[in-house]
Specification:
422 residues; alpha/beta; Rossmann fold; 2 domains; seven-stranded parallel β-sheet; six-stranded parallel β-sheet; 42% helix; globular
Length: 422
């Protein structure tokens, strides 16, 4: 997306306001959330960002004032190594909600006194910051840089890659699975969150997700045309995706020589035990008359992969530029990559690994904009999927139609309208 065009669409900014962002490093969530910060800075607002130390350079690149969290998580969340729903729920609760919450609340409270913001804007996992704002009676918004993740009538349960329910049995499926997932997460997250709330003289929540219900706005950073239709809470708004590349994905790039279709391979920017999957993708492209361009991100060294001459492997490149020349995207299904591919009108082959990726994959396949392949699929199966999508005119047309809506929503003024109209 052209940023100047985005600013023109948004119209003139109001007088400068003061914002306090409380952000956590969710890997692929960082570029869109910092894209929100940068847009406010560009419009003349005063923005201070509390964020994980891993984000410091990227925060400073936006022009905002950076204040790293004093408390940092002990190691990364190795969700890819967890096999049971119980283990995953416990690890996510501990890593994302329970352990950080009291520290976030204390540092955010101090920042509120110093910064005196008009609005607090928090990552999904910054529950402590939300509590601090609520305790002061200050409005806070929550950024949701993916499809809508909480239970809502009509929305399939999050994380399972389910299509919308059909008939009474399907609706019963959604109720049972959603209730079970909420109770499982609450088992590990609710008591710690309510303990912090009590410390700040706030009443207890019935469920952990109730904290997001206290937000002025839940800002869903995707296109309503991409997500499945559902009855969302009154404070939820689809505000369009933010298509910014991460600050480290810059500089010149060169496509492989030849005139075959250009296939961009873009997997996770954080480690998801995906090196073997990447190698099978590279091997698949090696058997096809295409040009492959693989960006490994900071999680994987390019020399960890063996590639033929017509497949280039690099750490990073500006995806916005590459997509203008590409014909197809092969990806793990992270929301940011999927949005950028669709906005460029490109079909996808998705090998989803975890997190929200199965949900993104089913939205792509339901709209006919690509295909999904198991992450452990053989190189032969991956090659067949790539060849099939490249040869499918209906798939390209479906991706282009969906991409028009995604790109229009990315250009719209809705995001800045919601943040500025306090």
């Amino acid at each position: 997306m052209d940023d100047g065009a985005a600013r023109r669409e948004a119209g003139p900014a109001p007088g400068p306001r003061t914002y306090l962002f409380a952000l956590t490093d969710g890997g692929g969530t960082v570029p869109p959330e910092l894209g929100v910060v940068r847009r406010l800075v560009d419009r003349g607002h005063h923005v201070t960002v509390l964020a994980d130390a891993s984000m410091t350079d990227q925060v400073r690149a936006t022009g905002a004032t950076d204040e790293p969290w004093e408390w940092q998580p002990a190691g990364e969340l190795r969700d890819w190594a967890l096999r049971s729903p119980t283990g995953l729920a416990r690890a996510m609760a501990d890593h994302l909600y329970a352990a950080p919450a009291p520290h976030q609340a204390r540092q955010t409270s101090a920042a509120l006194d110093r910064v005196r913001p008009d609005l607090v804007v928090a990552s999904f996992g910054a529950a402590g910051a939300m509590i601090a704002a609520e305790a002061r009676g200050l409005p806070f918004d929550v950024l949701l840089p993916n499809v809508y993740p909480m239970p809502a009538p009509g929305m399939p349960p999050f994380g399972l890659g389910l299509a919308p329910a059909r008939g009474p049995l399907g609706r019963a499926r959604d109720r049972v699975v959603s209730t079970a997932s909420v109770r499982l997460f609450d088992r590990y997250a609710l008591a710690p969150v309510n303990t912090v709330r009590a410390e700040y003289r706030l009443g207890p929540l019935a469920t952990t997700w109730g904290q997001l219900g206290r937000a002025r706005r839940q800002l869903v950073l995707t296109s309503a045309a991409f997500d499945f239709p559902a009855r969302l809470p009154d404070n939820a708004r689809y505000v369009g995706p933010v298509l910014d590349d991460p600050s480290w994905a810059a500089g010149p790039w060169e496509a492989p020589p030849g005139d075959g279709p250009l296939v961009l391979v873009a997997m996770s920017s954080t480690f998801q035990d995906h090196v073997a999957c990447l190698q099978r993708i590279v091997d698949a492209l090696g058997t096809l008359p295409v040009r492959g361009f693989v960006t490994t991100g900071p999680a994987v060294r390019p020399d960890a992969l063996r590639a033929p001459p017509h497949v280039t492997v690099v750490t990073s490149a500006p995806h916005g530029d590459v997509l203008r020349q590409a014909d197809l995207v092969v990806t793990h299904g992270g929301h940011g990559t999927v949005m950028k591919a669709l906005a460029a009108g490109l079909p996808l082959v998705v090998l989803h690994h975890g997190r929200d990726q199965a949900d993104n994959a089913v939205r792509v396949t339901t709209r006919g904009a690509g295909v999904a392949v198991r992450r452990r699929a053989s190189s032969r199966t991956i090659a067949r999927a790539v060849a099939t999508v490249l040869a499918s005119e209906p798939t390209r047309r479906a991706a282009a139609r969906l991409g028009e809506a995604v790109e229009r929503d990315a250009r719209s003024s809705v995001l800045l309208d919601e943040l500025e109209n306090l």
